[in-house]
Amino acid sequence: MYHHSGNVARQAAGSATGVLDPKAPSASKAPDAPDTEAVFFQRCTWCGTAMYHRVLCPVCRGSDLRTERSDGTGTVRHATVVHRNTPAARNVSLIEMAEGFVLRGRVMGPLIGIHSGDRVRLSTAKDPVRGQPVFQLVDEPYRAWT
């Protein structure tokens, strides 16, 4: 039976190990921006594909991934209301970020007012209960009523 040592596992992971570590250095990070309020993603150095929490690029299967900081703006691609494992209904949405990757998160606001195509921005990088990013609507939720 063969067991990897800790050093070998870290070297094999490459630059993608900084994805789960908010203190990882990033080329696009502003020096005064707080690390706790940011979403980090990877970009393949071979083909330039942006992805979220991956070990290999889904396009070219490259393992040389660079960690970058997202601007925090995106668009709701799918929104659903979940009633399971919670005392109250909650929103679960797929958000397509401006950089081109998709992630799952929660959008604050009235559940009936969250639709596909709504623009959102990052509110909190980590929900204390679910550990998912929390977004808020950029446009007024009742914009269709005016």
Describe the structure.
The structure is a single chain. With 146 residues, the chain is mainly beta. It is built from one helix and eight strands; from the N terminus they run H-E-E-E-E-E-E-E-E. The protein has one helix spanning 6-13; strands spanning 40-44, 50-51, 65-69, 73-82, 90-97, 102-108, 119-124, 134-137. A hairpin with a 7-residue loop joins strand 4 and strand 5 (90-97). The longest helix is centred in the first third of the chain and has 8 residues, at 6-13. It is elongated.
Structural key phrases:
146 residues, mainly beta, five-stranded mixed barrel, three-stranded antiparallel sheet, 1 helix, 8 strands, elongated, disordered N terminus
Contiguous helical run count: 1
Number of distinct beta strands: 8
Largest sheet: 5 strands, mixed, barrel
Euclidean distance between termini CA atoms: 68 Å
Question: What is the secondary structure topology, with strand pairs?
Answer:
Blueprint: H1 6-13, E1 40-44, E2 50-51, E3 65-69, E4 73-82, E5 90-97, E6 102-108, E7 119-124, E8 134-137
Brief write-up:
The protein has one helix at about 5-15, and strands at about 40-45, 50, 65-70, 75-80, 90-95, 100-110, 120-125, 135.
